[in-house]
Amino acid sequence: VSIVDLEEMTGRWKPAVAPNAEIEPYGPAELRSAIANGELVNYYQPKVNVQTGAVSGVETLVRWQHPVDGLVFPDRFIALAEENGLINDLTRVVLSSAMRQAHAWQEKGLRLKVAVNLSMDSFSSVTFADVVSDAVLSAGVAPQDVVLEVTESRLLLDQRAPLEILTRLRLKRFRLSIDDFGTGNSSLTQLRQIPFDELKIDQSFVHGASRDNTALAMYSASLNLGRELGMEVVAEGVEDLEDWDLVRRTKCDLAQGYFIARPMPASALVEWIAAWDRRLPQLVAAS
Ligand code: C2E
Ligand code: MG
Ligand code: MG
Ligand code: MG
User: Fold this and answer.
1) Which of 186, 233, 261, 286 is the most buried (most CB within 10 A)?
2) What positions belong to coiled-coil segments (predicted)?
3) Ligand 1 centre from 61 Cα, in Å?
4) Which residue's alpha carbon is nearest to atom 17 within ligand 1?
């Protein structure tokens, strides 16, 4: 058996490609017109209560429905938007579409908290808090039903503008969430300055943590910190039954991840909830 046959059998064989071949990056002009032409679509991923299984809300995750390349994930265009002054336009489009959707769900009697990811690059202009609240209020949604997620590694709580904007948003009754917690370097002092409502433990400390002492230590420390500071704690990256058992055993508040649901188009949500309700009795049975 040749090396190639062996590699093929073990699944490691790959067709020949140029060394260091990379996917061609998108350019700012292409992204700008995609934003303007409505090529961005919102997907939604549920966050569920770990003890009862109740669906607490959904996180909005943007995708680019590219006319040629198909569905493109945000890791290929968020930084591009940030670096080219397009992030505020992108946020506006994602936010207003999420709010229209939230309102439509409410009309159907489905009261879900809807979370939207915000880029720290938007936190330099003091008018940003008004931009956000105008988009929410004009859709007929209450700020209490909206969660604003900001990634911990990008938080600049030693600077005046972000601190002021977060405070303004909190005063307008939005729920503030600190995302990917454990991957940044916020000091405890800084964390205390902003009344975050929610802390999301990064998926790298959740998935597989029951078999990894270092991850488990980070998971437990983050969970306890969130609790002590009075925040609702979300475990991200709950991918399998072991992860689900861990979050239940440790009494984390909310869970999100592939084990529960993949991000999906809005149109799939109602059907997913019905399927989740059927699956639930086994998942929340006392163990
Ligand atoms: P995030 O906010 O931390 O979102 C969670 C990411 O983890 C999502 O990736 C989601 O699809 C993925 N995920 C969910 N469950 C699991 C799981 O069980 N296992 C694993 N391995 N992954 C899981 P996605 O949608 O590719 O988004 C990546 C990041 O892009 C997001 O991370 C967020 O930081 C950013 N992003 C997404 N949408 C927006 C947006 O509208 N605006 C901004 N500024 N950033 C966005
Ligand atoms: Mg997020
Ligand atoms: Mg995250
Ligand atoms: Mg992330």
Assistant:
1) 233
2) none
3) 6
4) 237
